Every structure is written in C-alpha cells, then in structure tokens.
Amino acid sequence: MPPRNPNDPIRRRLESVNEWIHGLRSAGHYIFHVLVDDQTQGGWVTVGGERMLMMATYSYLGLIGHPRLTKAACEAAERYGTGGHGSRTLSGTLPVHQELEEAIAEFKGTEAAMVFPTGYVTNVSTISVLVGRGDYIISDKYNHASLIDGAIMSGAKLLRYRHGDLDMLERRLQSVPEGAGKLIIADAVFSMDGDILDLPRVVELARRYDAWLMVDEAHSVGVLGKTGRGIEEHFNMPGVIDIKMGTLSKAIPSMGGYIAADAWIVHAIRHAARGYIFTGAMSPVVAAVALEGLRLLQEETWRVEKVQANTQRFLKGLRERGFDILQAETPVVPIMARGYDMVMNLTRAVMKRKLFILPVAKPAVPEGQERLRATVTAAHEPQDVDYALDMLTEAAREVGLPLNP
Ligand SMILES: *Cc1c(COP(=O)(O)O)cnc(C)c1O
What we know:
The protein is of the alpha/beta class. Helix content is 43%, strand content 16%.
C-alpha cells in the first residue's frame, strides 16, 4: 500500500481511534477482549488458567454448554451441512428456519415471526421498513445502539426523551405533525440501568396518540414473566406490543434476532427488510441451537425461577451493603462508581478477587455515570451470589468507594 499523507482525513480518523485505545492501554485501562479459555463450567469461566465467577454474561439462563444444545448443533450439521446456498429469499430457506420461526411465534403469542442473522441487524433493518422520511420515531435516551442506528438509517425524524420520562414521551407525541407516521421504540429491560419499561403507561400513550409500539426484548426473554416469556407476561398484558423484537444471542445462547407480530406485518417486513434480503441465511446449525434453546427455556422452567431468585438475592444484598444500584430490578445490575478512575480501580479490585465484572464508561454512559455492570444467571448458585457480594464489598473498601447502608 502507498504511504498516506499525514493529513489524509481517513488516515487521521483511523489514527485517532488507535491513539485513544493506546491511551487506555498505557493507563492500564484496556479491559476489552479478555481471553476466556473455557466457558462451560456453569457460572464460572477460566481466564488465563484461573477460575473466575462470570458476572459479565447475558446468558441469563445458564444454557451455554447444555448437552442438548451441543447435540442439536451436531445433528443439524450432519443433516444440513453448515452454511446456506444464499439469502433466505432466494435459495437459503431450510425446514429448520421455518420450525424456528413457528416456535418463536408460538412462544411470543403472535401469528408469525421471522429471524435475522443478528439482533443488531433485526433492529436496523426492521425500523427502516416501518418508517421513512416524513415519519417520526420517539425513543428513550437509553435505548440500545441498534435501535438508534435503525432510526437514523430510516430517514425518519428521531425525537428522544429522557430515560423513563413518560411525560416527555407524551410531549414528543403531541409535537408530531398531523398525518405523520409515529413509532415508539424502547428496550423492555434497559441494559445500562437494569430497569423495566413502564409498559402499561407506554401502551396507553401509544393508543391515545395512535402510535405504533416496537419493543426490544433482548434482556427480557427468559428473564421477565413467570415462564420467561418477557415483558407482556411480566405485566400480564398479552398482545399489546405491535412489533416484538428479541435476540437469540443472550438467554438463548445462539446467534440471531427475531421479529414477532401479526402475519401481515411479518410478511411485509420479510419482503422489504434489506438486512434479511441482502444477507446469507442464518446457518442451520445456529438455527437448530436457537430452536432447541427455546424448547429448553420452556421445559426447564426452574431456570427462569432461579435467575429471578438470584436477582432478588443480589439486589437485596447490594442495597443492604449500601451500594448505589439506581432503580435496578432485573439480573443486569449497575453498580455505580461515578468517576472514571474510580470505575477502573474498582474493576481491577474485583478482578483480583476472581469476579469477572466489567466497567461501563463513556461513550456507553455519560460522564459521571460510570459503573460496573454485573449480571446474575441461573448458572450461579446462591453461594456464588454471596461470594460476589463479599468480594464487591472488600473491593469497594479497598478503593474507597463510598457505601451508604
Ligand atoms: C444485544 C442487544 C441487541 C443486539 O443483539 P445481537 O443479537 O447480539 O446482535 C439488540 N438490542 C439490545 C437491547 C441488546 O442488548
């Protein structure tokens, strides 16, 4: 390659990223891409030969390494091979894709469902089908990046409201001009703060202002509701969400995303979403694992109960010990450090004590909102949760994080 002029804008742009990362490394703050050698020992993983309690996982039901999933993967590879002939639209649809979509529709209580290669692509491409130039999207400030990217790509006007401020959501709805399309997008469980969308009130507003409602259930499937069906089950409001989106890469440990909705809506998205049409079919191995994971979620209901019990134990323990955990009410828990140096010191102190918990800082959260984000799962035992509570308390004392019991 020819050497680039030092003022070349693309060179400058790439170098500025590398300089930023280099700065993190020299300060000892680079904690990304940690190499996990073995992840199949329940709630524990092996990192550099040492066992660590995994609390930076989205595998809420502890299904990674489940023998039935491994078997499903092997059998699918034997039956179908590994890749596909092309996109689902042209030559890539297999029976396992249809079975998976039918199973998702049944699980979510909708007429139909469709899957995409990832959850990220699901949001980005679906939103661009639903709205376009001249329409309006009303979005919680803490919504996941894939919802925001989808909103930007769609060309619709993006109106944001302060996290959880539904009065502001209502004012946003009132500001939309007559005749424009209105789409409310929101996470069911907000992955930074671990709180739950106020579905009853959002549904009421959507109906009053004639808006559509799309909810991202990445962190609510397998977690919320008595049988882990998600936010509608949690609030006992079946069928109130127009477009239910979810991922197959978290509680269900495979890859992919889905949309579950009325059949005519899914039909339209299937024939218009560019992230579905212009991409290879989901691998049959991935689809078979997702299908078996969905079955396990419904058969081994003790997993849903266990993650919920561990959540209560963890939240109660943290609050009793005086940690600031905002309004957390789900297995993804913010442990506030409120300061860049503090969150980095706290991370090192917990890592030293064999807790795998990672920090969240800018740009994922605003300055001053730095926190650790810890998750509990059905693979953790109550004594694991207690160990984490003790070690977090020790670590907080070591670095001088104020606790207010
Ligand atoms: C993880 C996540 C996604 C993306 O899902 P992938 O299947 O991992 O691409 C979308 N939305 C939310 C809220 C998420 O947390």
